[in-house]
């Protein structure tokens, strides 16, 4: 087992954690969580022997083999397959020794080495390495390409495959999903669930943690605490702990009361509407976990777009690609309120489609029409490196809005975690997460009508992801997002589109349907079958029929989504108004006029709320009836 005994660690003058006592048993899968900078990666470095404790100690069995993902990949001529095989060091040593024995003609030594290879299952190593590469998205042709031919993100996948190839007792993974698409994440989850050793993983992907880990080790306030269960279990346990702290509990009561009110009002009325029931379950879960994030440093919201037009963007029989089309016959109308999540395997064209919508890539054929004077907010990883390294976060915003006061801009940046001197420091030494937060702050400040987000959460911690999710739920414009963060997709998108085989079309199902479809498709791809052409034809017909059914339901779905958004806004406005009405000063003589005005506004809001509730219920019931008829 791994034993942390009164462990304390500093980096420079900063104390990361102290007096940590922790026992990790063989076979446990531990998710290591905590805000950026609390010492998660330093803890991994200590387990690898690269850092030493200031006080106390950490011990683990001396015979254990530890595997981790290298952060650098040499630009070598070694093929991808051979590079992955090098992850098994014992195998590599035996193969080198065997080659030497063959050169020397030492038959006895060769026999011994063949026996050793058999003992470690060395003769299936290439097959196992090939499966790892395939699971992480590499094609058969890429297996023989040299490592130096791959881009940075693909090299990180090679490093991950090399770590998984190692027959380790302890596997340390630091943000393993950052460079993966959703398909590869699905595969990695299944692989890790069957991993026989002890796993410790740093991740800000709550769905990934929920599916993989058995325990959460959370670092905060210089302490490490171990929780049983997955991330959702941890959130609830931590929420209960924080609820016992009166100040934190009171700070969350307003939001919890709002959520409980919504659930109470609709639970009895919407028992037959599946979409409504799903919403209610999500709200009930939010009520449980809300206190767990009471101390989040991130709080921001999207202001109404400066201009909204319908449609915002139109694609008509458009094709896009690089010299030759990657996607063809694209038809899309983006209107305010549309919220689309793009699904599809890596390389299918999700980012290319985003670039076409953004206007960064021209259509090779067909038309792209953009509404006049709309603002498009486009987030992509390359924009992190396009920030001015010598300028501060404040300077970046002052360049956008020279007339704004410094205090107003600093208040705005505070919602993104740039408090005090952090807003004045140059961008150059910023971490990936800090740069991502700044790029998001710049986008939000510009009040876009259309948001295009390509993997926005890659460098964000869990608290920032939650803040982004909450802000996007109230965004009034149109949203198109590519992300392997399923929690984000599930909570901010209304429609899923599948980008695959040169096409982009609505996907008939939710994320769980997509996961099952991808896993079953991978299994079928790996098994020989008869009648492949007929099966392909049937699948095509099924997809076409599903798309046609989905198209018929689209207007009703939009009505329900629009009503839900209005309800959220009205509830928030009413909650804010009721807080104002709770002020004692209003009930003194000087506040009588203001009190009358607020009571009048309260009555108007309640009337609007009743009308929108009625519309929402009607639309939900109509949608359910239409779905039942199609089934």
Automatic annotation (TrEMBL):
Classification via SUPFAM superfamilies: P-loop containing nucleoside triphosphate hydrolases
InterPro entries from the UniProt entry: AAA+_ATPase (IPR003593), ABC_tran_Xtn (IPR032781), ABC_transporter-like_ATP-bd (IPR003439), ABC_transporter-like_CS (IPR017871), ABCF (IPR050611), P-loop_NTPase (IPR027417)
Molecular function as annotated in GO: ATP binding; ATP hydrolysis activity
SMART domains documented for this protein: AAA (SM00382)
Gene3D superfamilies recorded: P-loop containing nucleotide triphosphate hydrolases
Pfam short name (any one): ABC_tran
PROSITE patterns membership: ABC_TRANSPORTER_1 (PS00211), ABC_TRANSPORTER_2 (PS50893)
Region Disordered: start-end pairs: 521-547
Chaperone as UniProt keyword: no
Keywords attached to this entry: ATP-binding, Nucleotide-binding, Repeat
Domain of life: Bacteria
Domain ABC transporter: 2-246, 310-526
Family to which the UniProt record says this protein belongs: Belongs to the ABC transporter superfamily. ABCF family. YheS subfamily.
Identification of the protein by name: Probable ATP-binding protein YheS
Species name: Methylophaga lonarensis MPL
């Amino acid at each position: 087992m791994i034993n942390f005994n009164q462990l304390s660690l500093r980096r420079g003058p900063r104390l990361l954690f102290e007096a940590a006592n922790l026992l990790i048993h063989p076979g446990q899968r531990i998710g290591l969580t905590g805000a950026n900078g609390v010492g998660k990666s330093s803890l991994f470095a200590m387990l690898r022997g690269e850092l030493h404790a200031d006080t106390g100690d950490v011990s683990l069995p001396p015979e254990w083999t530890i595997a981790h993902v290298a952060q650098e990949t040499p630009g070598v001529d070694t093929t991808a397959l051979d590079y992955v095989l090098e992850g098994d060091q014992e195998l590599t040593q035996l193969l080198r020794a065997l080659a030497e024995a063959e050169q020397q003609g030492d038959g006895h030594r060769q026999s011994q080495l063949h026996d050793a290879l058999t003992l470690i299952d060395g003769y299936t190593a290439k097959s196992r390495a090939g499966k790892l590469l395939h699971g992480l998205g590499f094609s058969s042709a890429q297996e023989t390409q040299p490592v130096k031919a791959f881009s940075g993100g693909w090299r990180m996948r090679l490093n991950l495959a090399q770590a998984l190839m190692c027959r380790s007792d302890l596997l340390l993974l630091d943000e393993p999903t950052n460079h993966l698409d959703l398909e590869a994440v699905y595969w990695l989850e299944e692989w890790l669930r069957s991993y026989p050793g002890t796993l410790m993983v740093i991740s800000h992907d709550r769905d990934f943690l929920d599916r993989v880990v058995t325990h959460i080790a959370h670092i905060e306030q210089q302490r490490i605490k171990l929780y049983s269960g997955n991330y959702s279990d941890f959130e609830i346990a931590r929420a209960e702990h924080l609820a016992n702290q009166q100040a934190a509990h009171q700070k969350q009561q307003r939001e919890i009361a709002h959520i409980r009110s919504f659930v109470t009002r609709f639970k009895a009325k919407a028992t037959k509407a599946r979409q409504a029931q799903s919403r209610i379950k999500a709200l009930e879960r939010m009520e449980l976990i809300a206190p767990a994030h009471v101390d989040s440093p991130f709080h921001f919201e999207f202001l109404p777009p400066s201009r909204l037009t319908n449609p915002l963007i139109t694609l008509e029989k458009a094709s896009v690609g690089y010299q030759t089309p990657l996607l063809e016959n694209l038809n899309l109308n983006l209107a305010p309120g549309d919220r689309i999540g793009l699904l599809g395997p890596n390389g299918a064209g999700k980012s290319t489609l985003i670039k076409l919508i953004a206007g960064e890539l021209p259509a090779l054929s067909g038309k792209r029409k953009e509404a006049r004077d709309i603002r498009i907010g486009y987030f992509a990883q390359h924009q992190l490196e396009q920030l001015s390294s010598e300028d501060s976060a404040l300077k970046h915003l002052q360049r956008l809005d020279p007339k704004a006061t410094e205090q107003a801009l600093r208040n705005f940046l505070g919602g993104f975690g740039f408090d005090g001197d952090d807003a004045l420091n140059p961008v150059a030494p910023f971490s990936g997460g800090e740069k991502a937060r700044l790029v998001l702050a710049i986008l939000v400040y510009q009040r876009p009508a259309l948001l295009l987000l390509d993997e926005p959460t890659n460098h964000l911690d869990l608290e920032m992801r939650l803040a982004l999710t909450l802000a996007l739920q109230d965004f009034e414009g149109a949203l198109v997002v590519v992300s392997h963060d399923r929690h984000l997709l599930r909570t901010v998108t209304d429609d899923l589109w599948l980008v695959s085989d040169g096409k982009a079309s609505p996907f008939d199902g939710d994320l769980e349907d997509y996961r099952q479809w991808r896993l079953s498709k991978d299994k079928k791809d790996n098994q020989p079958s008869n009648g492949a052409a007929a099966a392909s034809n049937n699948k095509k017909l099924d997809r076409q029929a599903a798309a046609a059914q989905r198209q018929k339901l689209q207007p009703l779905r939009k009505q329900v989504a629009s009503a839900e958004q209005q309800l959220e806004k009205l509830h928030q406005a009413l909650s804010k108004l009721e807080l104002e009405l709770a002020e004692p000063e209003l009930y003194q003589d000087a506040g009588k006029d203001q009190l009358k005005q607020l009571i009048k506004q309260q009555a108007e809001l309640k009337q609007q709320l009743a009308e929108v509730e009625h519309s929402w219920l009607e639309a939900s019931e109509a949608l359910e009836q239409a779905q039942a008829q199609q089934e």
